Amino acid sequence: MTPGRLDQPRDTRRKLVPAYDPESFGRMSERIARFMGTARFLVYMTGIIAVWVLWNAVAPSGLRFDPYPFIFLTFTLSLQASYAAPLILLAQNRQADRDRVQYERDRAQNERSIADTEYLTREIAGLRQALGEVATRDYLRSELQQFLKELDARDDRQPEAP
Questions:
Q1: What pLDDT, on the 0 to 100 scale, is given for residue 78?
Q2: What is the mean pLDDT of the chain?
Q3: DSSP secondary structure letters along 96-132
């Protein structure tokens, strides 16, 4: 590409900051934070620290890499904690975002359910009102039985013809 052409886009400048995918970084931080919250992690850390302290306390002085005040162990644990805290916070923020989205979905679903329930309530009220105006089978049956009783009562009151 020639540098003097105006119909061609310029080459992008190189950035000093490396490019990364925040979503994949977030997923990785969640996996790390999830692992750090397990008993397995605590057992591994306890084992590593126990071996570290025993090795540097019992091994011959020529093989010890971190003598008694265990400064390197303290540095290593501080470094691990300084990386763990932001990763855990990032994982919590991502979980809070997911919870917020789920809450909004649940709220919308609840609103739809309430609207459906109100609609069905109105429909049932309308059906009850319409049924109140229509003569039902039981109503007709009871009216006919009452009419038959009245006829029987009339027949009983009239004298029989000779």
A1: 95
A2: 86
A3: HHHHHHHHHHHHHHHHHHHHHHHHHHHHHHHHHHHHH
- Nearest-angstrom CA–CA distance, 80 and 105: 37
The rounded distance, in Å, linking the Cα atoms of 46 and 56 is 15
Phi-psi region of 136 (alpha: psi -120 to 50; beta: other; left: phi over 0): beta
Question: Tokens 């909004």 appear where?
Answer: 104
Average pLDDT over residues 27-46: 91
Q: Which residues neighbour 52 within 8 Å (Cβ) at sequence distance 6 or greater?
A: 66, 70, 73
d(C-alpha 45, C-alpha 59), whole Å: 20
Q: pLDDT tens across 78-120, in order?
A: 999 999 999 889 989 999 999 999 999 999 999 999 999 999 9
CB 56, CB 68: distance < 8 Å: yes
Q: CA dist 146 to 109, 140, 149, Å?
A: 52, 10, 5
- Could you tell me the pTM of the whole model? 0.54
Distance CA 28, CA 24 (A): 6
